[in-house]
Target: Alpha/beta hydrolase
Amino acid sequence: MTVNADTATDAPASKRRRRGLRALLISLGAVLVLALAALGGAGWYFSGEVINVDHGPSEYGLTVLAVDADSVTLPRGEATEKPGTWGLAWEDGQAVIGEVLASDEDTVTRALDRVLYGDLAVDTPARIDTWTYRDDPQTALGLAYEEVAIPTELGDAPAWQLAGEGTTWVVTVHGRNASPAETLRGVEVYAALGYPVLAVTHRNDEGAPAAPDGLHSLGEYESDDVVDAVEYALDNGAEDVVLHGWSMGGAIVSTAARKLADTGVVKAVVLDSPVMDWNSTLDMQAADRDVIDPITWAAKRIVEWRADIDLDDLDQRNFVDEFDMPMLLFVDTADETVDHTATLDFAERLPEGQATVVTTASGHTASWNEDPAAYGAALTDFLASL
Model:
């Protein structure tokens, strides 16, 4: 038998190549598995940043340097020197601070408009508070109220009910991981105009029933609780309602308005720094944190799976034809939490004259803080036009 030398040499080489290719494929497969695991892990983490419920204690990163009956001095920083009206919160108290009276390289002295409760002293740890008012309507604003229970599919949800005149009630809805106190800036205006107000809670709020999965649904199922609140108002003398939502409360209100579209009971909608599109908002937040696109994509898919939602269903621009009521939109162009351009786009898609847009540039849900009088005037004029 004759053996070709080249063939004899090629056979072992071919086997070595196959073994090398197999090893390479195994290595690539292992790398792919590890990459997918890392992608899924990062996506899971960032999904939790969006839908996990968190009512943990606040952090107080400032120290009161000086205080008297009319002013308070704080370390100088972006938050402490920003113009407008803000809250100053500390562990056992709350104050309202106003204009900047003086400043130097290290400190800012602001007008101390009033102390709502607690004792403000030098060396008190504190923080600037966009909500401005805390606690309840009586403590914060001197407004009488009753705490009522709103029947929902998950159980009774507490709410503040403020008496007023007329049959148009206002239902105020706060944002993610917040409380009805966030809405007190608006409640103050409505109460002054004589409107009955219902400042509601929704699932996963402190004191309210938890969602079955214990997660935020970004407006999808929280809106059912607002629909229940509207039914409560109708059962107690209201003929129609104005819905007013802040931040994620804007997504909740918008989705509730769609669910109530055929009833004719929503007289108007007011939105303050609303989340009109979670996709673009999450894209913006991810970009601000330098999160790469594949992780952002994975986080969105995990959000949808964990919360049993479709983010496209919460892009209100996809359902613009379901909004036939007058709308007042407070849009802050300096918003670093929510994609404000989605709100502007939503407004442009509405029929001409249906939406009134008020723009400010002081941060998320800070339209009132920039100029409370202008905010109140815009809201008053809008309500008068209904």
